[in-house]
Write a structure and sequence with these properties.
The protein has 6 helices and 7 strands; from the N terminus they run H-H-E-E-E-E-E-H-E-H-H-H-E. The protein is α/β, with parallel strands linked by helices. The termini are far apart.
């Protein structure tokens, strides 16, 4: 699943570059805790998008090494905007970032982030039409942040994208895309926004 999230994040990188933003992509072995902390303290990015495995208290990086952990290094999140596409990270980690360390905002998932895909397309995630509606909907919130929208507007964009994708699936519903609809519905329900609604990149 992490490979899919990374590949679909290339669309966000393209958006950011088109907006004239500087992108620091910590991919593969670069996604280690020491490297992450170095960037957080040195580069001091305003918007951080994290993909990977996670739980209520942590987000994993390369080989699932924890890179952002509640009560360990979440003090690096002050004045930053987060979009975190992992399971359950908004439940405790996100709240700690916002409530204890003054992160401006954290958009993430309180429950599981669900993705389904076509196993025959697993080598080319961007060509996977099964995963496409889920990944495009999950990209909507960070895409809105990149384009200068407020946190509240970005969250609403994500919610609308999930709803629109659900309606398109229903319009052409069959047993083959039942799992896609279920994933969209559950991700929409579990996506939450924490922090200051009026925050933005500008």
């Amino acid at each position: 699943m992490v490979f899919y999230l990374h590949q679909w994040s290339t669309r966000l990188i393209q958006d950011a570059e088109e907006e004239g933003l500087t992108v620091h992509d910590l991919e593969e072995e670069e996604a280690k805790r020491d490297k992450f902390e170095s960037y957080m303290g040195g580069v001091e990015p305003r918007l951080i998008v994290l993909n990977g495995h996670g739980d209520a208290e942590r987000v994993g990086g390369h080989e699932d090494e924890p890179i952002l952990v509640k009560d360990e290094n979440d003090d690096t999140t002050t004045d930053k905007l987060f979009y975190v596409r992992t399971c359950r990270s908004a439940a405790e980690l996100g709240r700690s970032c916002v409530e204890n360390h003054d992160a401006d905002a954290f958009i993430g998932y309180e429950g599981e982030f669900t993705l389904v895909w076509n196993g025959n397309r697993s080598a080319n995630p961007l060509q996977d039409r099964v995963a496409q509606p889920i990944m495009e909907a999950s990209n909507a919130a960070p895409r809105a942040l990149i384009k200068g929208k407020t946190v509240e507007e970005a969250y609403e964009a994500g919610q609308e994208a999930y709803q629109d994708a659900m309606e398109k699936v229903l319009a052409d519903y069959d047993l083959g895309n039942r799992d896609v609809f279920t994933a969209l519905a559950s991700n929409r329900e579990r996506q939450v926004v924490l922090g200051t609604p009026s925050s933005s990149l500008s």
